[in-house]
Model the fold of this input.
Amino acid sequence: MKRTFAIFALVLLLAACAPGEPAGPPVQEPAPLPAESAAPLATNEPAAPQAAWVEDGIILQPADLGVPEGMPVADVSAYNLPDGRIRLYAFAQEQGVRSLVSEDGVAFTLEDGVRVDGGMPRVVQLEDGSLRLFFISAGGIGSAVSEDGLTFTVEPGLRLSNADAGHEITPLAIIPLAEGGFRAYFSDLPRPGTGPDPHQVYSAVSEDMLTWTIEEGVRIGVGSALEESAEHPAALLNADGSVTLYTCNNRAEPSEGGPTVIREATSADGLTFTESTSTYLVGCDPDILVLPDGGLRLFYGNFDAAIGGYILSAHLEQ
Done:
């Protein structure tokens, strides 16, 4: 079927600095790897059956964001600017969420200032063109709004709390629902030293993106129809109404190229996922961006002890 449309088994690439928490979350290191007008939410026309992801290689390293060597740059989220450029938000160790801009999605220029004090950003463009940025905050997932993508006002309270979910969670990957409102996907938050645990993806619904109700059951993982480890989902709404989730799988087969890969799974109703396939992209913490021309770009991260946390990009070749 044509598709439109994280923290590894051995590494915690994603870590968030929440207010009141230690500045630098611990990082576990895997084996080094070889280098390599915006829609409100991720939607796109179907991709060709023979489509394959083409790696663009490493696009961001710690030094690009003023992060010390060996420390993480991670958890990116991007949207399209009206002038055709891409703005990308990234967690920078000991700083918070920074932003960068690019003409091509590969070469990025760092913008001045810190956007929010938090981690694991996920940006959504609202109907009026403003932005809502979800991020890890003390106790769960917070949010902030911005008119220009640079100056954010933090919204009171939490959108979802760890207590609501029963464990620490990743920020929300959101799609609109045909009947109105929104559905968000999230996973439990892996922690260093826990080994290649099986992780699960859950969902929640909301009328306004502010108040969320967790839905019953598991979308991907033990307890669902697709019992494979999955974490840090990115969501893509397909033209036929189905939903594709890109997740990090920390129990990848050796044939897939590494200990942790990005996998994709599609559901007709956005709730029941029964089969997944590998993108063969080695890394974790995916974020999917639909480009103005309808193409797809996938951002994701990895870690190398000699570099630190770094960001890679791949585009879909038709």
User: Anything to note?
Assistant: The chain has a mean pLDDT of 85. The chain is about 0% helix and 40% strand. The domain at 43-317 is CATH 2.115.10.20 (Tachylectin-2; Chain A). The CA atoms of residues 17 and 118 lie 5 Å apart.
